[in-house]
């Protein structure tokens, strides 16, 4: 049985394929990440510029034009049809102390824009320095602690807007 795929190009064009229909492409690798493709007697030069294999997202240059590609396989399509968003979850709006400790350093300020995995503060606990990083991109709404403050487990440290 043929497996379905949904390919989104630049977030606004969607193409539905099956693995059988993709076998009609004549693609030859000419060097790493560079391909010569022949489709219905029309030649294309393609280069994979960036690839995120885990999220199935790619940036591909075809005949000089760059396209952002997202590929959904059979499982992704089933999950989508069930109304379940992959990776969707609760948005984290506050950072709480994971353990009791002492605030050694605060790396951000109120109103600052931060990106995911950016250091927010350093918490010393059990003679170890623990860097707490941002779980998402966003803007710092408030900081409820100061350098040298002792904190308890679960105490609010930082809020996001």
How many distinct folded domains? 2
Helix content: under 10%
Return the structural class: mainly beta
Residue ranges: pLDDT <50 for 5 or more in a row?
Answer: none
The number of helical runs is 2
Q: How many strand units?
A: 15
**What is the H/E string?**
EEHEEEEEHEEEEEEEE
Radius of gyration: 23 Å
Q: Strand order within the widest sheet?
A: 2-1-7-6-5-4-3
In round numbers, the mean pLDDT is 87
Largest sheet: 7 strands, antiparallel
- Measured between the Cα atoms of the first and last residue, the distance is 49 Å
- The global form is elongated
Range of strand content = over 45%
What's the oligomerization state? single chain
What does this structure look like?
Helices cover about 5% and strands about 55% of the residues. The longest helix has 8 residues, at about 75-80. Strand 3 and strand 4 form a beta hairpin. A 7-stranded antiparallel sheet has the order 2-1-7-6-5-4-3. A 4-stranded antiparallel sheet has the order 8-15-13-10, with no helix packed on it. The chain has 2 domains: about 5-80, no CATH class; about 95-160, OB fold (Dihydrolipoamide Acetyltransferase, E2P), CATH 2.40.50. With about 160 residues, it is mostly beta strands. It has helices spanning about 20, 75-80; strands at about 5-10, 15-20, 25-30, 35-40, 40-50, 55-60, 65-70, 95, 100-105, 115, 120-125, 130-135, 140-145, 150, 155-160.
């Amino acid at each position: 049985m043929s497996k379905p795929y949904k390919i989104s190009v630049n977030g606004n064009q969607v193409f539905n394929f099956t693995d059988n229909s993709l076998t009609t492409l004549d693609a030859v690798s000419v060097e790493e990440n560079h391909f010569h493709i022949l489709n219905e007697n029309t030649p294309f030069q393609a280069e994979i510029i960036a690839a995120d294999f885990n999220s199935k997202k790619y940036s591909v240059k075809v005949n000089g034009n760059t396209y952002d590609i997202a590929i959904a396989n059979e499982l992704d399509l089933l999950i989508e049809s069930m109304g379940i968003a992959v990776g969707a979850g609760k948005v984290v709006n506050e950072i709480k102390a994971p353990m009791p400790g002492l605030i050694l350093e605060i790396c951000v300020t109120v109103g600052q824009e931060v990106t995911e995995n950016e250091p927010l503060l350093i918490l010393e606990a059990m003679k170890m320095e623990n860097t707490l990083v941002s779980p998402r991109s966003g803007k710092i709404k408030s900081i409820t602690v100061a350098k040298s403050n002792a904190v308890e487990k679960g105490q609010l440290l930082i809020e996001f807007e």
